[in-house]
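Ligand: thiamine diphosphate. Inputs:
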Amino acid sequence: MAPTTLGKALNMGLRKAMEDDPKVLIMGEDVGKLGGVFRITDGLQKDFGEDRVIDTPLAESGIIGTAIGLALRGYRPVCEIQFDGFVWPGYDQIVAQLAKMHYRSQGRLRLPVVVRIPFGGGIGAVEHHSESPEAYFAHTPGLRVVVCSNPVDSYFMIQQAIATDDPVIFFEPKRRYYEKGELDTSITPEPMFQARTVRPGTDLTLVAYGPMVKVALEAASAAEAEGRSLEVIDLRSLSPLDSDTVVASVRRTGRAVIVHEASTTLGIGAELAARVTEECFYSLESPVLRVGGFDTPYPPAKVEEEWLPDLDRVLDAVDRSFGF
Amino acid sequence: MAPTTLGKALNMGLRKAMEDDPKVLIMGEDVGKLGGVFRITDGLQKDFGEDRVIDTPLAESGIIGTAIGLALRGYRPVCEIQFDGFVWPGYDQIVAQLAKMHYRSQGRLRLPVVVRIPFGGGIGAVEHHSESPEAYFAHTPGLRVVVCSNPVDSYFMIQQAIATDDPVIFFEPKRRYYEKGELDTSITPEPMFQARTVRPGTDLTLVAYGPMVKVALEAASAAEAEGRSLEVIDLRSLSPLDSDTVVASVRRTGRAVIVHEASTTLGIGAELAARVTEECFYSLESPVLRVGGFDTPYPPAKVEEEWLPDLDRVLDAVDRSFGF
Amino acid sequence: MTTESSGDLATGEPAGASVPLVQLLTPDGERVEHPDYEFDGTDEDIRGFYRDLVLTRRVDAEGVALQRQGELGIWASLLGQEAAQVGSGRAMRPQDYAFPTYREHGVAMCRGVDPVRLLGLFRGADQGSWDAEKHNFHLYTIVIGAQTLHATGYAMGIQRDGAVGDDDGAAVIAYFGDGATSQGDVNEAFIWASVMNAPVVFFCQNNQWAISVPLERQTRIPIYQRAAGFGFPGVRVDGNDVLASYAVTKAALDNARTGNGPTLIEAYTYRMGAHTTTDDPTRYRVAAELDEWKAKDPVSRVRTYLERNDGAADEAFFAAVEVEADELATRIRRETQEMPSPEPTSFFDHVYVEDTPRLTRDREAYAAYLESFDADAAAVGGH
Amino acid sequence: MTTESSGDLATGEPAGASVPLVQLLTPDGERVEHPDYEFDGTDEDIRGFYRDLVLTRRVDAEGVALQRQGELGIWASLLGQEAAQVGSGRAMRPQDYAFPTYREHGVAMCRGVDPVRLLGLFRGADQGSWDAEKHNFHLYTIVIGAQTLHATGYAMGIQRDGAVGDDDGAAVIAYFGDGATSQGDVNEAFIWASVMNAPVVFFCQNNQWAISVPLERQTRIPIYQRAAGFGFPGVRVDGNDVLASYAVTKAALDNARTGNGPTLIEAYTYRMGAHTTTDDPTRYRVAAELDEWKAKDPVSRVRTYLERNDGAADEAFFAAVEVEADELATRIRRETQEMPSPEPTSFFDHVYVEDTPRLTRDREAYAAYLESFDADAAAVGGH
Ligand SMILES: Cc1ncc(C[n+]2csc(CCOP(=O)(O)OP(=O)(O)O)c2C)c(N)n1
Ligand SMILES: Cc1ncc(C[n+]2csc(CCOP(=O)(O)OP(=O)(O)O)c2C)c(N)n1
Ligand SMILES: [Mg+2]
Ligand SMILES: [Mg+2]
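Predicted complex:
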């Protein structure tokens, strides 16, 4: 048990997966000597060799497409997409091939491919380096989509994702890479495709994932000071979307606010709002409210803090919810 | 005024746009001599020449990417994507370039590019030929997304799309290409980015677009026989999503059902349900219900009729709505 | 390998011009020599090819007919491309793996796939129902070019398995068309294969057309010369010559399996039929072109050879092949007509290896919904 | 055009091997002859280049310094690539159009873009604030390779405008790196340009690295040879030689503008600094490499030439350039520090040419929300 950063926990989880299964490969741009631009694969090529940690040519479609071929040959490739905004050249291979091949083959072929995507903003970066494209993947049947938010989950979820026989899009909250938490690698992890209540409460359900979990927890603390008890749920799995956990909570609290960085329109919050409303219609005391990025492209870094959901905007939504 | 198929109306609209503005170009696979696999560009290369109707190499990224360059040079390219399922290789150029260049340039550069996508199922086709990818575009700020559902709209909307200075993703309901309607080309069209109430009603608001408008109208007729008055709205514009028209209707009717072929999770119905619930919370007598494709890849043609929303599934949802 | 110097490339020599191609059997059925390639088989092998060609053509004709009769939704005919497919397909060893497009019916048959299995996809009953891993023949890929990357990745897997390097090594063959050469994916596959020195053969059937778009819209030089730009050999073979297609593919696969990396083969051929049964080629090409290619028919030249060379094949042989083809056609027809449609709730299956809770719920709800109609029907009738 | 025969391509000659490149000014400052290319300018022109090189390098150094001091979020240094950029940039005519990556600061300056404008993007104040159409210099493109298709499409527009064919024609130049050659988009751009015979020059600055990934991972033959596979000429130029970079680019642009189609230029150079200020090259490359390239420095060889050739330039000239560079650096620094941040609600602007109703509403609501803090603050303080 030691304080470990989220990024380091991912690195440890990858290492563990590679040790446990010789079929696990890592591939992507700069994942070798450099260890990735965020150092998540640091040291792995040195220890596992160039055959297992592959610096690829600079082309995302090639990365995903060859990973599919490697998976068909029995390997378990873990692809790194350098930044969220660079996944699109590989998108056809993800949505038209990776997502559908198991289905197309009536279950004969399995595609245990993990696509790691550092995502989200708040790091002062230039264009294409701060996107939150999770909804594009969660709308695609055949993909599993998960997001980690803390070191413990990062360590275990990356291993669980690699062990999954379906393709998994694995989102990593890049602005939390350097945040620390206690990591006990000896515990038995919870199942990956489930949401987790990270703070119990009675008055309103606050749902978040990835980088926004921290903000949600801070909002719950702040609200407590005003006498409001907020239950915070870390979604963790966006596909399958564990709405059941949220529904159960909202049946108790009667109110819900969902937070994410992605543009609000057609973000995960839309789906969650639709489901929760349908399943909790008579328990709801106010409509499910969404706090998301605005419906604009991600803005220049100097105004990203204004664009991104933050403590104040979450509390504002909580206020509005209670105002109904 | 003559009975005209939806496909022919599009062809006429394209011709008119090319006559009106010499900067309008058509580009895509097989759009020349063949007139496109659906003949939507039939005869245009013969009359406007190979410089204005361009059979491109077989690559969607190339089509969109060069269209962007042509637009920067002052042209107004209309790109045809042969089938919905083949847009993904061009997706990076659409979401990372086309959608963002106006924003990136603080409004200096304009990208009047239209991307025509025949979409949807029900035509007995093989894989990748029956997809409904509209939500992937509507979640992308910077794109405008419209869908036509009848010959009159098709004729005018394609011209309006071409006249728009923003990029427009133009969805065409391929299974309705051969359906006829009266087309009077001399009327003044309505603005494009607005929904239209195509059948007034008082008891429930039924929302659809593209191929499902016909199904919605049939459902309204069937429901009338059971004494239920359904208001049918053709959304037409998915981005901007004209939820105001829907909200106004639901405030009167108290109930809403939304129908689309795309997989339900994170489909347009999710966004509409979230917005309508938020804005009509106290008017709603039941939750907004969604009738969509299931959360699976599009299935083989022999079972597509079971997969697709149809009259019965719409009526079933209407029943469920009234059952709340 | 015969590759052209690039000196003429820069001049923009037309892509279809009379470029030297590897030919071992002329359209007139004469066997000819080539400095780099020879066909090392026997007349028995050639009889085997003949049988493959005839059966392939018959299956294809049956596909067209079944579509016309409404048994299939669509069919992609390979008419004219039989030799390219049989030659390359027969050049594979059991351990080799093929990644096809949607038109490789002849290759499929060489890999032991029952042709009825191919029809299911075109009927709309499934999306490819053969066991890819049993036949080392991947499912059909419809998105143009995508499979070339899968093939390259698979070949990288072979490298990692240590299954490349000597004569027993394995290799991969990726099929694609002339139009496909324009896709980014195909060019990325060339890069990967070249940089990784992966054991993969890129087999391009240049049938001159991508639906209505002629070759000149995809390239201004012969396709096989593309390989030189990526640093590996390219060769043009007479795709209507089964012996040459076999010999060239075999050499390339052996090159790959022994660790010498990728080759691009351009099988120069012609799509004699429509792109698919929904296509109308009269809109974009002239009949004379077809006549020209009829003279180069891939099947008849083998028959001529076998007939002309005493003892190579007798009447009984030809008759037997004919009977076999007839029987195959009859069986295909029957089994296609009898092919069951998928169950109404089958589309919920295999979205994932393990169902999600929601899929399970949706399937159950939908089954109940469907049952309600039966109940309704038994009572008053539904909507 | 000098292109290699492809005979050696197939043998897999290493991509960085000693391949003939066009050089007109040696690292020692000697002018040399080349059979196909000559520099037709005067010493005054060379002094102009020198000034451009020095100013470019100074702006770049200032970018690095400003980032270190927290004024910029990141900076992509072009150190070592000045000659490739100034040579090619100066070869453009006013009517030509450039599509850059994120590193073409030198080209930008040749196109008359005030370097302060370049810093806004790296500061996070904007995403490129110069007027692309005024300078015929497009905004920086960060997604690798995407701009090569824009360039090709723009060139197709020039064709349609009838602005190609004679000496007054216009041409386009697309910049990209060695890593970019692996992207599908770049290869598709090659295909389009070749098939359409578009007036576009592909200018690849092969700086040997794509972040930490060495050239061998992108290609196994020299990059300029890629063009032969697409049927147009490719040439490798000494990218550290401003005269050769100028001459080769000018010839290629003139070829394009007169209707002779595309050319691929590989400017063989070296990224002497880190990939960006956030990169640490010590993790992946050895210092000796840098030393080797320091000997080929693109700026000092021009200075040597000017110093050695009596009358070409005097002390006063060098001193004046130095003063100008200092002043430019000072101005950039000041203007960057003073650069205003965008208004908090500015991100609602220019999503579309015309605001959507929802954007208008969101902007208003957000403005009101922001104002509520001021009000709160005036009263008791917000959350
Ligand atoms: C990405 C993509 N775009 C478009 C299509 C539609 N399409 C199907 S076949 C075809 C032409 C293919 O030509 P070619 O590669 O020469 O193969 P051929 O059909 O001639 O065998 C096209 C455009 C597709 N299947 N995939
Ligand atoms: C599509 C895409 N993938 C990944 C990246 C991240 N990235 C930025 S620069 C770079 C390396 C580019 O190398 P090269 O093309 O040689 O240009 P250089 O930076 O050396 O000038 C990478 C991988 C990107 N910008 N775009
Ligand atoms: Mg073809
Ligand atoms: Mg580089």
